Amino acid sequence: MIGRDSTPRELRSNEPARHETMTVDSASGARLVTLDEETAALVHLGAVLAGGSEPQVRAALVGVFGRVRSVWVEEVILQTYLFAGFPRALNAAREWRRISGEEGPEIDAFAIDDPAERQQKGVATCATVYGRFYDRLRVNIHALHPALDRWMMEEGYGKVLSRAPLDLARRELCVVAACAIARQDRQLHSHLHGALHAGASESTVTAALAVVAPLLDADDVRRYQGLWARVLGK
Question: I need a labelling partner for 89 at 20 to 30 A (CA). Which of 49, 77, 79, 216 fits?
Fold first, then answer.
């Protein structure tokens, strides 16, 4: 509820045209200044994969085919398992293969297999997402269980969210979408901050929330608007 302190405890081939969208706003330092059409479609997909029905997932995947570069679609499918579980990720991957007609790669060219590299990248990515809240996050997650802290760094931020084909700002916008549709307010609060820390502008995050809004009920939309205002200090 917005009336209470909602700060998370942890903080306390058919490719579209490749136009450049990671321009830098010199005033704010944001690298993803606007929510372009391709990224908006990706954000919508991230939400539907995490919480939509099978027909909605199918429609969303059809909708991104030819509009969003395939490597981005596949990265969002892969990261879905972190936020919505293996069944949804597997079903989405199967449906994407059918819709796109593309075979899966024989090898994962973007895998981060070396444990030391995975840990190093995980720490760097997590520190970017959480900013000044990073040290507190590690202490609090470790207190919940050391395994959760280790898995968060190695599995979540190292193995998955540090993969090269999709930049961190767009990943975070898709995580915001997944947390919103799953109604995970604490994690949404964290990743709203994370999207800003990763280089998305305030207006880009606002636009991403608007993309997800039609998938939510009115109470959720009002609650998340209030949560976003808290993040911005408004």
Answer: 216
